[in-house]
Each structure stands twice: as structure tokens, then as C-alpha cells.
Amino acid sequence: MAGAPIDRAASVRTLPGIGPSRADALSLRGIVSVGDLLRLFPREYVLPGEKRSVAEARAGETVVLDVRLDSIRALRRGWRVTAVEGVLADATGSIRALWFHAPYLARSLKPGARLLVKGTPSGSPLALLHPEFETIRKEEEREFERIVARYPAIPSLPPRVLRKAIRRALEHVGTPDDPLPEDLRVRLGFPEIREALLAAHRPEAIEDARRARRRFVFEELYRLQSVFAVSLRARERARTPHVLAGACPLFSRFLATLPFRLTADQERAIEEIRADLESGRPMERLLVGDVGSGKTVVAAAGIACAVGHGGQAALLVPTEVLARQHARALGERFGPLGVEVGLLTGDCSMLERKRVRERIAKGDLALVVGTHALLQEATRFRNLALAVVDEQHRFGVRQRAILPAKGERCHFLLLSATPIPRSLALTLYGDLDLSVIRELPPGRMPVATKRLVDRKAAEAYRNLRERIEAGEQGFVLFPLVEESEAKDRRAAASAAEKLAKGFFRGRRVGLLHGRLPVAERIETVERLREGAIDVLVATTIVEVGIDLPRATVMIIEGADRFGLSQLHQIRGRVGRSDLPASCFLVTRGPITPEAEERLRAIESTNDGFRIAEEDLRIRGSGELLGERQHGPLGLGLADLVRDIDLLEEARREAFAQASFSGDLPEPIRAG
Ligand code: ADP
Ligand code: MG
To answer: Relative to the CA of 329, which ligand 1 atom is closest?
Structure first.
């Protein structure tokens, strides 16, 4: 083939068919250079053997047809074009295709054109509704005898042009440097870069394309894990932490006086934490566990170890209510062992805060629980050895990092709110070590979960009234959506009033939402704990950490408005003892198919890890990582559900690589 060599760094405009406006369209996807374009991965392939004849088309089965356009016309109602109808034919017969919202097709498609069409026939007689298609030009006919790569749609850039540009680039660009170290690539059996690019864009066999994809996915994951490995090692070099080794009577006594037996997972997590504290490396560990799996006691064991070795420990939580709950629970454990628990929140009086801060600074208070007040400049520690952050997702990355920075040689433990799949944890928190609690304490029964639509919701309220008779408690939860926060709050307040006067007359109904003064919120939770409130009407504030063993009924109004992990977290507020508990998912009016899928998932299982995996499946890793995360992480191709094996392998290799250096490969773009 003729043509001068093309530089990978050259603009895509050096390629045939790419003018200024098409170059602009490409740049919107982050594709500027020829090298970038080669990293645009096909989203699928059409195999020659995959094409079916028209006669073989069946209702409900997706087919690829290689057809001639017999006729095409716009269907109108009055002047308005309602659809464009084409008749597609091959030697075996003909089938109708209808395209909506695309009146221009009636002009741009010409009878006699050869089309590659993909769609799912339906109806009788069979028709294709809005099928995907592309025109096969005469000069491209030979291309369609082989495997055809199909790329993500890019506005104003016909697939034919894109393919031709990529073909040219493949032919005239020299072999790029391979971002994967040669020995690693060979050992893992991945194709080298040039071969992989060819196989991705113009595979001879579909198996080659698959191998190429795995190579690029690996490359992408390896790159990210290498960043983690490097940052972890830098951290290790930068600090020499407290070495909390040797016998620790406080730790032993803490474990010996627990009122229950630890689960095997809790024991293992505690062991992992202890090993970190002893190791001479600074711990940075994420503890992932299901709602109610008992993460607090694991953190407390770490605290016992730190304090027992003469260090200070601090526990940061997102709300006042949770701070008090933890201070009380830790007080019950540590008080008898002679360790005082300090409380530092925005709600404490100035004087109290000042006193607590002085004692922390002097080092005569070894353990403190608090909210954001802990993070303020004025809070200084004498000897902070362990920083713990509960419900860590409620804090920003920078915010989280403030607490451990208050101790020169501090260990760091983060607690998750809900389970997240391992693959996601390794991707989002890959520079942390991971401990996982999968099992719940014994005796917990799954929360019976039931959906109730519209007027059927009465069943939930009747059930709650019966439980109250038996001395139990329940929640009625209303969604809080930011844009209409005031409205939702009003809804909760007026519902509380109505329920108190009507259905729950004579019972004690409490109200909790984020706009109530803190003191009132704390008092309400106190009264709930003492059993002085039977029903708590609330907005999502209860989703965070409250632990009330006698609460057995959760009614979620507008359940379709919550996300999957949120629903799981909310449901986790009941069923925290051996009393049987129920959760009612109430919806009123029509709901979206996605909401339908979420509710079905939450109804079908109580296993938070399965729910988290389902969430990942439903939404895809792209959305779960969030656009914000996705870009910088450079994960365009990897699918955290499908590629988990490659992720584990990439992590192993990246961390094993003693001194990864050099430039990181550029990210791969999603296909
Ligand atoms: P979460 O993991 O959601 O933060 P918590 O730490 O609040 O859960 O624990 C939930 C409840 O389970 C608490 O009342 C706690 O005392 C209790 N608990 C924790 N571990 C065990 C265990 N091994 N056996 C029995 N109860 C336990
Ligand atoms: Mg908790």
C-alpha cells in the first residue's frame, strides 16, 4: 500500500475522510491523535457466518441480515412524518423495517442500496422496529466478507469512514512501545501490542479479537493497580509507624469481656488489623462488612490494641446521633477496663469541647469519639496511634485523610457502610488493604421483605400496630430527595401528625429529619432507645448506623426512589437482634423498570454482598464508579463483573513488580 508513514502523535486529520468537523466529533470522545484512534475499541463484531437470510428471521430473535433496500418511504400523518418504512429483501424473501424520529432516512437511503441490518423482528407480518444498520458500499464489499468491527456511534462519522481511517492508521503507523513489560506479557501469554491492535480492529478469527481485548483490559487494570502499588510503597517509605507489638493486657481483657462470641470473620478481621499494627508498616485498611455484621466491635478491638500500647485512638463518625451511640457502646466495653471515652462533637458546649481538646492534647484522654469537630485545627493529639473512620463513604477523600494526619505515626482504619463487591473495592480503594466480614452474627433471621402497591400498603401499617402491641418498635421512612427537600420534610412531618392522630392514636409517634435541631434529634433517638417512642417517622437520616435491637418493622414509603444499596442499608436498621423483623417496600403509582428491578433484587435476598454485586450488574461499573471516577481511573474497557480474574491478576502482578517505573500507558477508550 502506498502512503507515507504516519506519526502516532499526528492529528486524526492526517487520516483519509477526517476533516475538521469529524475531528471535532472525535475529540469530544477524547480522540485527538492517530494513536488515540487506534485505542478506540470496537464494541462488537459481526461474523460472516452470523448473517441470516430473511427467511430465517424469527420473532424475538436478534438477527443480522445482509439485504438490499427494495423501497423506502416516509409515512405521514398530515404533514408530519411519523416513521420511515423500508422494505428489505434478499433471495429468500422480504421484511419491513420501520425507523422513528429519523425522517432524513427517507432521503439519504436509496433503493438498491446494500445494507447490513441488525434488529429483532416482531409482530405479524414480521417487521424490524428501528433496527441498526449500515450501508455497504461497492468498494467496501470485500470488507464485509471478513469479520467486521463495529465501533461506538460517533455523530457525523459514518462507520465506513471510521473503519477506513483506522485501517490506514494500522497500515502506516510504526509499532508503538508496548506499555506492558515484555517479560510479564510473555509470561501471561498476551499478544504483543501490534498484533493485539490488528486483532482488535481487523481480526482474522473472533478468538484473536477476544485475546486482544483481554490484553488491553489487563493493561488498563495493571496500570491502575501500579498506581496503587506505587502510592502504597511511597507511603510505607515516608513514615515509620507505631509498632504495637508484644503482649497487650487491655486487648486480651477486651476480648475476654465481650458479651458474645465473635464470628469467624470478625476474628479474622481483628487478626489482620493486629498484624498490621505489629508490622512496622503504617496500616491503611478498609473493613467491608454487611449492615449489622458487627464492624464496630472489630474496630474497637483495634482501638484496645492501640490504647493498650500507650497510644491514643480516635473514631470519626458522620452524625451526632451516631457519635453518641458509639461513645455509649464503647463506654460500656471500655469503662469497666478503666479506659474513659471522650466525646467531641459540634453539639457539645464550647466549654466541654475546650476541655476535651485540652485533655486530648495532653494525652490524658486515650480514646475519643467525634464528628467533624475532630477534624478541626484546634483538635490536636499527643500521640494518636489509630484513627478510625466509620461510614467512610460519607466523608470526602481529603476529609478522611485529615484525622490520621493528626498523628505522626498513625494507623488508619476505614469502615464501609454497606458491602461492596471485591472488584469495586480493589478499583476504588486499591491503595488500601481489605478485610471483609461476610457472615452475620448467629441467630439473625433474614428480614422478611414484601412489596406493597398503593392501597395494599395498609397491611404494613396494620403489621406495625401489632408489633407495637408486642412491645416492639418500627420506622416509617419517607424519601428525601435534594431538589424537593423541603417538600419531603413537610410530607414526613404531616404524615407523622396524621399517623399520630389516626392510625397510631394512643401510640407514641416520633419524628426525625435532618432539619430538626441536633439536640432534638439526639433526644428523639434517646427516647427511642429507652422505648419511649413506638413509631419513628423519618427521612433517610435513619439510614446511618442507628442500632436499636427492638426495632422490628421498617416501612419504606416511595421505595422506588431509593438506590439499591440505600434500600439495603435502610432495611438493615431492623433485624438487629433475634426478634423476627419485616420490611415493607411501598410504592404508589407507576414506577420505572429500573426501580422495578431494584425492588425485585432487594426482595429476593438479604445478602448485602449479593445485592452489591447485583447493583454492579444492573448499573455497570461505569456508572458505579461514576463519571468522575471513571475518567481519571482510565477504566474504559474493563468490566468489573466480567473481568474480575484479570483484575486479580493485574493487582498481583502490579504489587509484585518491585520497582514499577516509567510512563504509564494511556487509557483505553470504551467500545
Ligand atoms: P455494623 O457492622 O452495621 O456497624 P454493629 O457494629 O452496629 O454493625 O453491630 C450490630 C449489632 O450486632 C450490635 O448490637 C452489636 O453489639 C451486635 N454484635 C456484633 N457482633 C456480634 C456477635 N459476634 N454476636 C452477637 N452480636 C453481635
Ligand atoms: Mg456501623
So the answer is: 16
CA geometry: angle 640, 132, 149, nearest 5 deg: 55
Nearest CA to ligand 1 atom 1: 292
Reading phi first (left if > 0) and then psi (alpha if -120 to 50, else beta), residue 281 is in beta
334 three-class SS: helix
pLDDT digits (tens, 9 = 90+) for 27-61: 888 888 898 899 888 888 988 888 899 999 999 99
What are the tens digits of pLDDT across the range 459-490?
A: 999 999 999 999 999 999 987 655 566 666 77
Question: pLDDT tens, 105-137?
Answer: 889 899 999 999 999 999 888 999 999 888 888
For ligand 1, atom 9, name the residue with the nearest CA. Answer: 294
Superfamily of domain 249-437: P-loop containing nucleotide triphosphate hydrolases (3.40.50.300)
pLDDT confidence of residue 209: 92
Q: Do domains 249-437 and 448-605 have the same CATH topology?
A: yes
Question: Which residue puts its alpha carbon closest to atom 10 of ligand 1?
Answer: 292
C-alpha cell at 440: 452475620
Which ranges of 280-349 does DSSP label H, i.e. alpha helix? 295-308, 320-334
Residue 426 has pLDDT above 70, yes or no: yes
What whole-number distance in Å separates Cα of residue 444 and Cα of residue 260?
Answer: 13
pLDDT single digits (tens) 170-206: 998 888 788 888 999 999 999 999 999 999 999 999 9
Q: Whose CA is nearest to atom 5 of ligand 1?
A: 294
Q: How confident is the model at residue 631 (pLDDT cuts 50, 70, 90)?
A: very low
- Smallest CA separation from ligand 1 atom 13, residue: 294
Q: How many CB atoms sit inside 10 A of residue 520's CB?
A: 11
Q: How far is CA 203 from CA 1, 116, 198, 200, 637, in A?
A: 19, 19, 7, 6, 18
By percentage, how much of the chain surpasses pLDDT 90?
52
* 506 torsion bin: left (phi>0), alpha (psi -120 to 50), beta (else): left
The residues that bridge with 514 in the sheet, in sequence order, are: none
412 Cβ contact list (under 8 Å, min separation 6): 282, 283, 284, 285, 386, 387, 389, 403, 404
From 295, 297, 529, the mutation candidate for ligand 1 (largest count of ligand atoms within 8 A of CB) is 297
Decide if pLDDT at 667 tops 50.
no
Please name which ligand lies nearest the alpha carbon of 315: 2
Ligand 1 binding site (Cβ under 6 Å of any ligand atom): 260-263, 266, 289, 291-297, 441, 547, 576
Q: Does domain 48-146 have CATH number 2.30.110.10?
A: no
How would residue 574 be classed by pLDDT, with cut points 50, 70 and 90? very high
Specify whether domain 448-605 bears CATH 3.50.50.60.
Answer: no
CA of 127 to the centre of ligand 2 (A): 55
Domain ranges across the chain: 1-46+153-174, 48-146, 249-437, 448-605
- The alpha carbon of 441 and the centre of ligand 1 are apart by a number of angstroms equal to 7
Which ligand 1 atom minimizes the distance to the CA of 298? 6
